[in-house]
Automatic annotation (TrEMBL):
One of its GO terms (biological process) is respiratory electron transport chain. PANTHER family: CYTOCHROME YDHU-RELATED (PTHR30485:SF1), NI/FE-HYDROGENASE 1 B-TYPE CYTOCHROME SUBUNIT (PTHR30485). It holds the Pfam family Ni_hydr_CYTB. The chain crosses the membrane at residues 30-50, 74-94, 139-159, 179-202. InterPro entries: Cyt_b561_bac/Ni-Hgenase, Di-haem_cyt_TM, Hydrogenase_cytochrome, Ni-dep_Hydgase_cyt-B. It is a multi-pass membrane protein. GO terms for molecular function: electron transfer activity; heme binding; iron ion binding. This is Cytochrome B. It is found in: Cell membrane. GO terms for cellular component: plasma membrane. Belongs to the HupC/HyaC/HydC family. It comes from the Bacteria.
Length: 217
């Protein structure tokens, strides 16, 4: 009886202790911004590389590309590639080790995604508690993780095609891998555009990603 009496008063304080924790831990904010930097460099230098040998009847305006010429773009691209790979591995490992990957992104159901998508279209954004993602956010972030993996794998085929023959064949050959890489990049760009729009609509999400922050009562 005495032990139960001693433990019981601690229970009401648990939610308060949880509320004092940062919404996003420091390691998550650092890896997030490093990933963002890597993606910006990869996309803009990748556009310059694409312009050197386009496979669609259009090119990317030079003003939004990085590198100045093919050699310069390749140097930027490879530098950002290593940043994305190593930082991405740290991000993924810490998400799994801390349990954040499963608590933040699961459970995820088609019904939940549909309901939250319809609510968003009506202007009813689910951001009452920034500690929790709605189903659309969960799906979007999981998609980006998988898309970045596809981009890295297809990039390996473009960089070291001879050394990765099985991976090259799984992607349908070198030229097919180029298209996989391009469309993977395009999907990331689309995500970034939507992400920035959502940040503009809910500015506090940017503040929490910069300083961690705590939800206000």
């Amino acid at each position: 009886m005495n032990s139960r009496t001693a433990i019981a008063p601690l229970a009401p304080d648990a939610p308060q202790a949880d509320a004092r924790r940062p919404i996003h831990p420091l390691w998550m904010r650092i890896t997030h911004w490093l990933n963002a930097l890597a993606v910006v460099i990869l996309v803009t230098s990748g556009w310059r590389i694409y312009d050197a040998a386009p496979f669609f009847p259009f090119t990317i305006p030079t003003v939004v590309t990085l590198g100045g010429w093919l050699g310069g773009a390749l140097q930027w691209h490879f530098a950002a590639m290593w940043l994305l790979v190593f930082n991405g591995l740290v991000y993924l490992a810490l998400n799994i080790a801390s349990g954040r990957l499963f608590t933040k992104f699961f459970p995820l159901t088609p019904r939940g995604v549909l309901q939250d998508a319809l609510a968003a279209l009506k202007g009813k954004f689910s951001h009452a508690d920034p500690r929790h993602y709605n189903s659309v956010q969960k799906l979007a972030y999981l998609f980006v993780m998988l898309d970045l993996i596809v981009i890295v794998l297809s990039g390996l085929v473009l960089w070291k095609s001879v050394q990765f023959p099985v991976l090259r064949e799984l992607m349908g050959g070198y030229e097919s891998a180029r298209r996989v890489h391009f469309f993977g990049m395009a999907a990331i760009v689309a995500f970034v555009v939507v992400h920035l729009v959502m940040v503009a609509l809910v500015p506090r999400t940017l503040l929490t990603m910069i300083r961690g922050g705590t939800p206000k009562a």
